[in-house]
Specification:
This protein is an all-alpha fold. The chain has a domain of 117 residues: Orthogonal Bundle (Peroxidase, domain 1). The protein contains twelve helices and four strands, in the order H-E-H-H-H-H-E-H-H-E-H-E-H-H-H-H. The strands form two sheets. Strands 1-2 form a two-stranded antiparallel ribbon. The longest helix is centred in the first third of the chain and has 16 residues. Bound molecules: protoporphyrin IX containing FE. The site of protoporphyrin IX containing FE has 26 residues, from helix 3, helix 7 and strand 3.
Length: 359
């Protein structure tokens, strides 16, 4: 608590603070990190997230679209493992910028500032085609009813269920509206944590969204699937044998188009291998490795990895699947829009609806 208060003081010294748009952090930069030693300010914490009364499990059953969730599920089940990983990341990147309002899906409009989609961390997003497919099928079945923001939330759940071999399963409260604002300048350096972030920074960036240290450790477990571009990490902190292999795969100078699995043991399984990889420094990002640098986060890493007994039993791995679902639901409460003044149900997920003709 004292630490959070200190962060708030620090942030307020540095600039304006709001829970929706945390303070303007550092200058915009791409991966890899800027010159060493450049300090970056921390965003202020926001109150812990709590369930949003406007969201309900089974929301679309009452809205004359009872098949909404199964239509999304069908689209996700036909996706590749890479697209499924992309869908889980899409939900995270959507929720952390402007709240869970599908702002990440909006395409560039001539004459307007670049949308989120063109922010550095979003250039490698995958799975957007699956969202479009689901939306098309939904519009054919029940037009104008299901928001793109909810499609993202359902798709994140369905991808998790599938990649975890059905171990992660949770109900998704729905009823979000789609936002109308999307700015690339709100992504890296403002709301999305950088891969070279240390514990203080990533903790503060999660706290700025109302998520705690445990949510952060639990959700980072999504790095047990998917791929990373070679320019997103430095091999310096990685265990030397893996580091050398990565140097060879990525080339020197680094080939920006080359990607590597995030988890070399079980690359397409959403599982607790990530926590074992942290222990052996077989992880790509500083933001992963840093989770062992405080006793509290290290205890969680060891617990989920299956190295800590609770009442003499190894609960950790089984508990993680449950905790992951809970944390995804919690993340889904960030910045929800449910007032028609601030949101809408888009016709197409990549574009805001045309303004009604005033005549
Ligand atoms: C702790 C803060 C986090 C940082 C710094 C971070 C950073 C990154 C980076 C740099 C990549 C590789 C991108 C690329 O080079 O293409 C990545 C991939 C990924 N991240 Fe994160 N991430 C974080 C948290 C999360 C969370 C909370 C989730 C979801 C719950 C998530 C899900 C993923 C997934 C699934 C991929 C693989 C995507 C694909 O294969 O297309 N990450 N992350």
């Amino acid at each position: 608590m004292a630490k959070l208060a200190a962060l708030a003081v620090l942030a307020s010294l540095l600039g304006t603070v709001s829970c929706e748009l945390s303070i303007s952090l550092y200058l915009r930069w791409g991966y890899p990190p800027p010159s060493p030693g450049r300090p970056y300010p921390l965003p202020a914490p926001c109150p812990p997230l709590s369930p949003t009364p406007a969201l309900k499990v089974g929301y679309y059953a009452d809205k004359n679209c009872p098949d909404a969730e199964s239509i999304v599920r069908d689209a996700v089940w036909n996706a590749t493992a890479g697209e499924k990983a992309g869908l889980i990341r899409l939900f995270f990147h959507d929720c952390f910028v402007e709240g869970c309002d599908a702002s990440v899906l909006l395409k560039k409009v001539e004459g307007q500032p670049d949308p989120e989609m063109l922010g550095v961390p979003n250039l490698s997003l995958r799975g957007l085609n699956i969202i479009d497919k689901a939306k098309e099928a939904l519009e054919a079945k029940c037009p104008g009813i299901v928001s793109c923001a909810d499609i993202l939330a359902f798709a994140g759940r369905d991808a998790s269920y599938n990649l975890s071999y059905r171990a992660i399963n949770y109900n998704v409260p729905a009823g979000r509206l789609d936002g109308k604002v999307s700015l690339a300048s709100e992504t890296l350096g403002k709301n999305l944590p950088p891969p070279f972030g240390d514990l203080n920074l990533i903790k503060a960036m999660f706290a700025a969204k109302g998520l705690d240290e445990k949510d952060m450790v639990v959700l980072s477990g999504a790095h047990s699937i998917g791929r990373s571009g070679c320019s997103s990490f430095s091999t310096a902190p990685i265990e030397p044998v893996l580091g050398n292999q990565l140097n060879q795969t990525c080339g020197m100078p680094v080939n920006e188009a080359t990607t590597v699995p995030q988890d070399f043991e079980t690359p397409d399984a959403l599982d607790v291998q990530y926590y074992r990889n942290i222990q052996s420094r077989h992880v790509l990002f500083e933001s992963d490795a840093t989770l062992t640098t405080s006793p509290q986060t290290k205890r969680l890493v060891d617990f989920y990895a299956g190295n800590r007994l609770l009442f003499g039993v190894l609960f950790g791995p089984a508990v993680w699947y449950e905790d992951f679902g809970k944390a995804m639901v919690k993340m889904g409460y960030i910045g929800v829009k449910n007032d028609p003044k601030e949101g809408e149900i888009r016709n197409k997920c990549w574009s805001v609806n045309p303004k009604p003709n005033p005549y």
